[in-house]
Amino acid sequence: MKRFCEPVGPLAVILGLCLTAGCVFGASRSFEGRFALTLPDGGAGWLGISRTNGGWTGSIMWGAGSVVPVQAVEVRGDMLVVTRVHERKEKNAEGREVTVREQEILEGRWAGDHLEFTTRRQTRDGWTEPRRFIGRPIPPLPPPPDLSRVRFGEPIGLFNGRDLSGWRPFGGRNGWRAADGVLINDAPQPEGRHIAYANLRTEREFEDFNLRLELRLPPNGNSGIYLRGIYEVQVADSYGKPPSMHGMGAIYSRIAPTENAARPAGEWQTYDITLVDRHVTVILNGRKIIDNQPLLGCTGGALWSDELRPGPIYLQGDHTSVEYRNLVLRPVLK
Length: 334
Prior knowledge:
Largest sheet: 10 strands, antiparallel
Low-confidence stretches: 1-27
Number of domains: 2
Shape: globular
Radius of gyration: 23 Å
Order of helices and strands: HEEEEEEEEEEEEEEEEEEEEEEE
Mean pLDDT: 91
CATH architecture of the largest domain: Sandwich
CATH topology of the largest domain: Jelly Rolls
Structural class: mainly beta
């Protein structure tokens, strides 16, 4: 809700103009909304704050993994206070497995057009030193686009079938190579430990587009296709399972497909994905499973949290082996 200031006479000179959602002096800006986070390590995060029934609730995505609810949200004067609880399993002195719970407190205040946060975590040795990060309000979503009126440009072949020209591995041991028209990620994992393999991104960056490709997974395979480097379309061996926000065809942890259209591991599968005005349509193996749905924020593993900047197509390679071919992108003509 907007608040309006009405300084009169000399007071107007002292106070200056009102900000869009609050005054320089007086009422604070609202904390309700969605925020793109730039985390202390430079990674991407997301925070959603809502007010319902007179109280506050929130959800967060911190660098990787899923969007999860926070334990508590409070507004103390001009400060937003978000409490998270981290749980992990470990063995105690008697060798029994116990659950260890650690609390984390995020405190944020408006500083111009963004929130400035500190975060500190409770450990056995006490509270950690505060770390700083920022949150920027995400602009409201536009209405769903009329896809029948969207014009696409000439097709761009992203993979030449011979080598990795136009692509760049990042983030781990490179397992990517080209052979016989197929883009292959060899990512064998030794039993009992995990090797961090590289992801792969296009050198070019794009705005809105349609992307078509084919892929093939091994049993229990897991990969992902990041649109503009920020929204992950899940790639997983999900054949025969109920549709979910973590299964094949989902926007990871955000949008579940209406049905599971996945094929068995070892078979080639097709994706037809359209991203326009922060709305996404996903067709898997000829079945429309996400229909022009809004994207509320970045997903785990995003390169950054800014949803308005161009970005690459990036393929997740740090989980298991996977194969891709016939990757063709058509940019939206503005």
